[in-house]
Amino acid sequence: MMMRSARPFLIALCLAALTPVVVAHASPEAGESPKAAEEPRADRLEAPDKAILKSPTIEQVDPDRFGLLPDAAYGAFQRGYYITAHNLALPRAENGNPAAQTLIAEIYARGLGMPRNAKKAAEWYAKAAEQGVPEAQFQYALMLIDGDFVSPDMDRAFKLMQTAADGGNRLAQFNLAQMIVDRQPGFESERRAVTYYERAAKAGLADAQYAMSQVYANGFGGKQVDEKEAEEWLKRAATQNFDTAQLDLGTWLVEGRGGTHDPKAGFGWLKRAADGGNVAAQNRLAKLYRAGVGTDANMIEAAAWYISARRAGLIDREMEGFLAGLTPEEMKEAIQRANRLR
Fold this sequence. Notes:
With 342 residues, the protein is mostly helical. Helices cover 61% and strands 0% of the residues. Residues 1-51 and 55-61 have low confidence and may be disordered.
């Protein structure tokens, strides 16, 4: 529960902008007749799951997360010597060092070098949280929300999340923004939430940067609609390989939304998202190849990318008609190309 990956669950305005994808459990190849309901935008992804953001991966760990930790313990942790890190940090943790307590909690939470023990992790996070470590406050708040290893307590979780957010933890800032909107919907809550989204975005969190793009694209929480500003936030998130931002930015550039009409650049961003496995981007890329927008027209590439999206469950009636018009030889080549895209 602690370390599952997540995408942001954004404010209601973001969800309204997305039309559910048409999913059909069809054969991966064309030629069959998949059943799909009529949808105005068949290549729109479903709204993101309501899942909170968790910690960075080990490779992204910043020593500042743990506070003033002894160099030897963190050095061992960073090099993957987790048992050594545990043994070096434990005496200090038992003596009340909050940074060492946070590191010990991290090791138990992730099961690094030893069996995962969420209950022990919760105990150490709680101790470090009481001493003001934002990372520990954030993690313990998540545990209070989940309620799997400690008694659930949403009020305490909210207070800890706010303390961690005010202490500079950008993941806490992002999650707090959504908690604020969920607890008391309304304009003032939206305005307050945007301030935390913005802080997390300026701290470099791609999820929050994407949220800010939606804030400016739709006008939310006291911000006026400003598509140029929205495009800038999309670029920041897309540059960090946030695939939904790459999808939107590519679409905006192709359509000229936000003031910049650059089909070639738009094709490039959609290609990056498609290469990363974004199904909606794969479908849109197929359409660009078919129409020769931002790239040379290529019917085989168009078919291959749509087949790839189709295998993932996306059905687009327009592209189904396109596949039906291919010759058997073209279809065979497209399937072979799609197989290489995996």
